[in-house]
From TrEMBL:
Domain called FAD-binding: residue spans: 7-351
Membrane-spanning ranges: none
Organism listed in the record: Actinacidiphila epipremni
Source domain of life: Bacteria
Keywords assigned: Monooxygenase, Oxidoreductase
Pfam families named in the record: FAD_binding_3
Protein name: NAD(P)-binding protein
Amino acid sequence: MARIGKALVIGAGLGGLTTAAGLLRQGVETEVFEARPTPGRLLTGGGFMLWHNVFLSLRRIGLDEAVAANAVRIRHHEFRSDKNRRLARWDLDGPTDKCGAPACVLRRSSLHKVLTEAVGDHRIRLGARCTGYTQDADGVTAHFADGSTARGDVLIGADGLRSTVRATMRKGFEPPPRYARYTAWQAITQLPGEDVVPTGTFFNLWGRGGLRFLYCRLGENEVYWDAVTSDRAAAAGIDTIGSTRRDAMAHAYRHWPAPVPQIIASTEEEAILPVPIHDRPPAGGWSQGRVVLTGDAAHPMTLNLSQGAGQSIESGVVLAGLLGRADSGDVPGVLRQFEQTRRERTADMVTTSWKIGTLGLIHHPLLCGLRDLFMRTTFDSIARGQSYALMLDGRLERGPVLPAGGGGE
């Protein structure tokens, strides 16, 4: 039987580009279709943390070193209260040495550029808004808003939380994404000074009133931060009608320990992006014939494990590995195998991340104190062990490096 002749990827986000890069590495002709019209519209967003498992996955498609070269290695993950009390401190050097892969922070745009270069600009069609698909026994046809079509042996829906491919697969009806009841205000600011924010530590602060704050150094002059505010906190005084976003954040975190107020004050208004956080409860049904969902189209999750992007990358590598070895006639079965391989792991991530997020919704000072006590007594031991057991379950370390094939020249 003939191998897969062409793969169509809908969505040029992290999951879609990772899948495309993996397929191209194995010599599968691949074309990526993205609704956004210009490259600049793709390079948005702040920074994030990529854990060890992500670099193990990127290694399988030969991109771990390129991504690490654009990143800052994290050696400690420190949890603190809004009273500046240390709740836990995780040493990441031990796990890095054990699994042979680091944990790092970097700009989303930097990761996107590495993946884009691996795929090749000429394989990414911008301004191509997918409106649906049709398929038969021999292939699948993607339809676009401008009236054009594209034909392939497999169609991969990597078009995000509100995926058109997912909606088409479900015949136009599905419950909306689940809102987590909090917003992440993300930004990157120019703030030099190791005495202000030391390189190599990711700070994760938990406060009262439904507030959290995360920050880390991205480079000599840059700091990435995330202010996480519950809806009740917003109702209690985060006003972006009567003030700017920066002033609203400065007011909400005015009593927090240094350097939080300084980080906010140093940030340009235009750099602050509020992102309401959603996921979907774990559910099956990722494939239909020659069409499959991956990344946020299949398993969107909240930010609390810093695994949303990581799981999109993992899924992209696994999917590419399975399809790269498949014959065209075997595609429907391979796509079902992909879901069976990934469903349990991603479901655990979605559920665990959601549960952690509920801890940040606590408002009452007494309950916040009990939460802090819980974190002080469990996060350096039980929680850390559970987190690493979930993150490094052994599956990725056994994955082969995908052979170089048709690359991104």
